[in-house]
Amino acid sequence: MKIHREGYRILMLAAIVILLINLLIFRLTGVSEVMQVLIPAISLIIFLFMLYFFRSPERNILPEQGVIVAPADGKVVAIEEVEKSEYFGDKRLQVSIFMSPLNVHSNRYPVSGVVQYVKHHPGKYLVAWHPKSSELNECSTVVIRSSSGTDILVKQIAGAMARRIVTYAKVGTEVTQGDELGFIKFGSRVDLLLPAGSVVIPSLGDEVRANITQIVKN
Question: Could you confirm whether 140 is annotated as catalytic?
């Protein structure tokens, strides 16, 4: 299983902390035979979960014009027309994908093009499926202009558990559909803002996968 580079440092620190805690418990307290088995087992489960969270499966795709793919793994929790003040200032169709701690958390570019806008916004940490999380939570916004001249906005949104948003995008950079846009650590949400009138393929409640699920196909 390939591990995402964002996990290397955290996993190393977690392994050290877990090991130290186990050593202290066994050296400084009287531990029963049952706990001698249970404590290491629980520690191993916690570490394996963290290892699983930072997995990074290979999903290479052939970029396709006229197709917008999912920027993240997760469940579609909103498909609605919204009035956006940031960057656009007009009506857009918003597709929101909730990423549980069990989903792959690497975010991908939904289209090929040139990055026009990147901005980080401090904010709250409401649960990621909360309707107001798009507006109130800490987030990072990226806009890509496709070869057809269409601007697509991707918003990485922190959740109650997610306290670290990583965005690799830089203004003026040419990017390819499917390449890594960033990473959100421990539960989150990604919003995709499309031109009004876009026909979305997934339905509310559907599970989508980054680089695999088509969101719009013209």
Answer: no
